[in-house]
Amino acid sequence: LVRLRQRLASSQGGLGRGLLALLSRERLDEDTWESIEDTLLAADIGVVPTQRVVDNLRTRLRVQGTEVADARAVLREELLALVDPSMDRRLQVSGTDGNPGVVLVVGVNGAGKTTTVGKIARILVAEDLKVTLGAADTFRAAAVDQLATWGERVGVEVIRGAEGSDPASVAFEAVKQGVEAGVDTVIVDTAGRLQNKQGLMDELGKVKRVIEKQAPVTEVLLVLDATTGQNGLIQARVFREVVDVTGIVLTKLDGSAKGGIVVAVQRELGVPVKLVGLGEGPDDLAPFDAGAFVDALLG
Ligand code: GDP
């Protein structure tokens, strides 16, 4: 948690310094509110939430006076409310009735799906869970090889098919072998071709259906690149329509001053951000913590 906080703080130093500096002014006037608004918008928090924070801040501080210490506390409360700390962010990696948990990982190519699958496997293995990976992104040979490398690194089995084979058959095989081996969790990497909505729906729908012939899918994680802004939101909407997303993984937060996208995407999907990617290395994935995140934003 401390590490996450430090990493977020350093990656989003721009935003943090901005807000703190704004609230260090002697008087909180029109300029202050406008600057806060600009800063939140620049961080991709989104127009409506930004307006809400600034309106609430103005109203509350008018009543309470303009003490800087108050202002910081009120801003923290307002930002925290936006991130919604009450959401359940635990990963559903365990199955019921003797089944393994099945985690389906979806998202467009390049968002960081394969990397995220590897990192999650590593976390689960460190918790002494038995894991099998399914390389169902069969359209890109590189993706399958990449996952195989993660499998070796983490020490888990990777089920793969021939290049160009049906993703659903690979997913089926991975869950079948996972069930037979009595593993705790099967994580399935999927293809992220955003060809068209119907195509995506057919493909992911089939993957999910064949998996569920053997064990229920316990978690559908949508992987989104934090640096893609509005475009990422459009993608998120499409995935939300074709599959029941249960959690979001926001990657590349290390390379972005746009951490506010957490707020925007949660609002858009009504689904919690469960994990954040903070780099390309095997340990660069952390549970999302609303309080730490807001503190990092504030600096
Ligand atoms: P996929 O096509 O969705 O499976 O994406 P990949 O897992 O292949 O990742 C695409 C690129 O993004 C790779 O170069 C990854 O190393 C990189 N990447 C993934 N997650 C992160 C992250 O959290 N931070 C950074 N900086 N890079 C990441």
UniProtKB/TrEMBL annotation:
GO terms for biological process: SRP-dependent cotranslational protein targeting to membrane. Its EC number is 3.6.5.4. Keywords: Cell membrane, Cytoplasm, GTP-binding, Hydrolase, Membrane, Nucleotide-binding, Receptor, Transmembrane, Transmembrane helix. GO terms for molecular function: GTP binding; GTPase activity; signal recognition particle binding. Residues 272-285 form the SRP54-type proteins GTP-binding domain. Its main location: membrane. It catalyses: GTP + H2O = GDP + phosphate + H(+). The keyword Transmembrane helix applies. The keyword Manganese does not apply. It is an enzyme of class 3 (hydrolase). GO terms for cellular component: cytoplasm; plasma membrane. GTP binds at residues 107-114, 189-193, 251-254. Belongs to the GTP-binding SRP family. FtsY subfamily. Part of the signal recognition particle protein translocation system, which is composed of SRP and FtsY. Involved in targeting and insertion of nascent membrane proteins into the cytoplasmic membrane. Acts as a receptor for the complex formed by the signal recognition particle (SRP) and the ribosome-nascent chain (RNC). This is Signal recognition particle receptor FtsY. It comes from Nocardioides szechwanensis.
